[in-house]
Amino acid sequence: MIKLIVKFQFQLEKNYLRFNPIFMYNFSIIIPCYNQADWLKICIQSLKNQTFENWEAIIINDGSTDYTKETADNFAKNDKRIKVIHQENGGLSAARNAGIQMAKGEWLNFHDSDDYLLPDCLNQVQREIENNKTIDLFQVGHQLVDEHNTLISSITLKQSADSFLHQTKIGNPGPPLSFFLRRKTALEAGEFDVSLKSAEDWDYWIRVAKMGIERFLITKPMVAYRYTSNSMSRNPWRMYENTIEVIKRLPLKDNRISNNSPLNVDVVFDIEKAIKARLIQALGLNIMQGNIEEAIRKFNEESSKYNFHYQPIDFRNMNSFMTFKNWYRTEDVKKILNDYPQLYEDFFSKTNFSSEFQKKACYYVFEFHFKNSNLLKYQLIGKIMNRILDISVNSKKIREESGIKSL
Q1: Is this structure's pTM higher than 0.85?
Q2: How far apart are CA 208 and CA 264, in angstroms?
């Protein structure tokens, strides 16, 4: 009964706002938090430091057992722009949905509690909103930072002629906090799917894209997305299963969307190709975690299930956002090339691939970092070395000395 009442209230609010677009704030920053009170302090402080002040923050304490409740309540007590929802643990999607229902801002921004805004972010986004009044979705570049707020890499967005829908078919277009979405559009897209324990944001952006919404890119980094050591504890196979669910939905008309977009129709889409790419990403994380036997078992099971066939270059996808794709710093490149190749060699040695195939596949996993190492060490000469390496790898037989470590 309670769920029906909440659904009814949510539908009433959708209808009201569709015809009565009156907002108390420019931005509603929705921040689910589960046992991350210390990170929450940094997140909220980044908001309070913004030069643009017409925002609200909605903290959803998702059943935390640390001192998140006290931290959030204290922020709300001292700043009326900050609201708090305390609820039993329901997961990220349920928390975001609760935040959307409470939001009074025209634009929504979805944080994780360890994310934060860079200085002057909201002011610059608001300026672009005022200059582009017909746009419903803005995306900014982002920084990747570690536990100490030290910059790992900086992601500047690149303009593309491809539609937003096309880009969402390729993969998740960015971390949630990099998007600023008009609230009316968010209500029409429907709620975040509580059945998904990961990839729920990708599922959401696909729906927004199927509505015919196009992004306006603010290319430079304006937000910080945190990558911590805890990220290594992620379950790659739970992520994989959730991602497959999203992929299977992708080519179908989505009845969760309430507008009548001509893009929301059944389309032809190579589901198995997309699944194979996600399988290789999950394998990359599983191997990085040292779970070689589990990775081999899942690789054999899924390859047989879908009758996958592979080329060595397919395994380049093991270097993904789930592993070390965005690790550019000199010390990170050195660590990656020192610590991880043996794990991937072990994995490939347990496959039925030929020795030459194994060497090429393992090379492609570390190609970016191997080339980056050459550039960092030798600069211009490194470029020449990388060109020679390309020729070598693409020749009929990869030379033993052109790989990494024992490759």
Answers
A1: yes
A2: 10
